[in-house]
Amino acid sequence: MKYRKAGRQDLAAVMALICDTIYTVYPRYYPQGCVDFFLDWHSPERVAASIEAGQVNLLLDSGGRLVGTGSQEGNYISRVFVRPEYQGRGYGRMILDRLEAAVGEAWSAVRLDASLPAVRLYERRGYRTVEHQSEETASGCVLVWDVMEKQLREG
Known about the structure:
A seven-stranded mixed β-sheet has the order 1-2-3-4-5-7-6. It is globular and about 40 Å long. Helix 1 crosses helix 3. The chain has five helices and seven strands. The longest helix is centred in the first third of the chain and has 15 residues. It is an alpha+beta fold. The termini are far apart.
């Protein structure tokens, strides 16, 4: 496995992974209006801006295929996605290990927003919910998520 920063040339592959994951996994947890909200939220423009800022990381298999991605801005982890056919094999854990280590270099705690499909994964890693959030989408459905935090070391 190879872990590296994303570059401009990776935008199409990152977008394909994000969209594939949202289309495949999220309808099991959210109505279509919320799925559409997530697709809009992770727009090519937003992902490109994160890549340009050096926030997006990639996990690639030995053949160079993109397996997963995760982003870090300060002590905030976001946009952790693993290709659906690779889920359940520890790749999300590998990405989170790297992201948490990077956060831990400068901060004592890490924060993230957890969608419904990811809450249990984060709980198993020692995250705790510090706040519940909700927002009504343009389609009228209510999107809910947890703000979670994990202490990495004494403050």
